[in-house]
Amino acid sequence: MKLHQSFELFVGLRYTRAKRRNHFISFISLISMLGISLGVAALIVVLSVMNGFQTELRTRILGVAAHIEISGEGGTLLGWQQIAELAKQHKEVRGAAPYIMAQGLLSFDQAVHGAMMRGILPEQENQVADIGEHMKMGSLDNLKPGEFGIVLGSEIARDLRVSQGDKVVLIAPQGQVTPAGVMPRMKQFTVVGIFEVGMFEYDNGLALMHLSDAATLYRMGKKVTGVRLKLDELFAAPRVARELNATLPPGIYAGDWTRAHANFFRAIQIEKNVMFIILLLIVAVAAFNIVSTLVMAVTDKQADIAILRTLGASPSSIMKIFIVQGALIGVIGTFIGVAGGVALALNIDVVVPAIEHVLGIQFLAKDVYYISELPSELEWRDVGAIAAVSFVLTLLATLYPSWRASRTNPAEALRYE
What we know:
With 417 residues, the protein is an alpha+beta fold. Helix content is 54%, strand content 21%. Helix 2 packs antiparallel against helix 14, helix 10 (262-300) packs across helix 12 and helix 10 packs parallel to helix 14.
């Protein structure tokens, strides 16, 4: 058995290395190998870039949003201190902070801009969000109770044409009854900071103020909208939320970020899967070029096959010889593609700027895209899956030509030799 296996492997490798009488077959083999390499490398690079984008967006979103939000019925929560302490008893909760969320209309000079107003405690907000790390002007610590300071997103500040120190008017939708009728509530705020997290949704639609100022303006009293939590591991949020719901008082619920942003991240995952399928077609086309290569090789080696059959080689041995030949093309192509794809994915932060410099263009312009550099995150699980699928496609492509070779009739093949 070992002798047979070594014989088939030896002849298959010999056919692969030997100089061919038909150079066109060698050319097709080379094209197949390069096609597999290109497809595998493209798959690795594209999936790594999509992983990088997914991680970058998740980081930016969760730098402003919370891993878990605890809220009560009717959108208000009384006694948030006790709820926060109860939540922090969970071993995976890193920080907790209260917040008040409401709508408002900001006005400066002749410009107006609608936004969501978030009342926060600056000293606790840094435990659950990273906005403090993205301040372009000022600091969250400038928000003092009773001073009615406000921190604006960069797009809001740009639309209103305001800077630190300017005073804006906040118009709250909750009206107050006057002899002239119901009038909107208005309060002047001083801009004490501007942040830019790189997500248009937040830079253009979020403003921060002190919790006590928000409670006064929106007449919340001692109530808040909810408590925001940050975890050690963000992917543990669904499980931790379920565990917290089992311990929270009736009428109080914990929701995690995977529900709040489910459609967004699901769309990214679907796009990643579709790109995988589309790019896999490149590998499939290259792999099935092996079919034509082996069909021509079988035709070219008719006499050799017939001689091997007359010497006692079985049809299965002939089949294995050509499977070895085709599989070797696929293995070499896959190996080159994996090596090239991994090298490019790990150094894309160097390669892309070099290409931009040579061509004189910028793929992701800073004035259009917030993510101006291609992020890349190589996952070895993806690399393994791509290599495995490529190898399987290669093996499938060898079956039909190898089966045809095994069906060669020695007498017919040698009749005209």
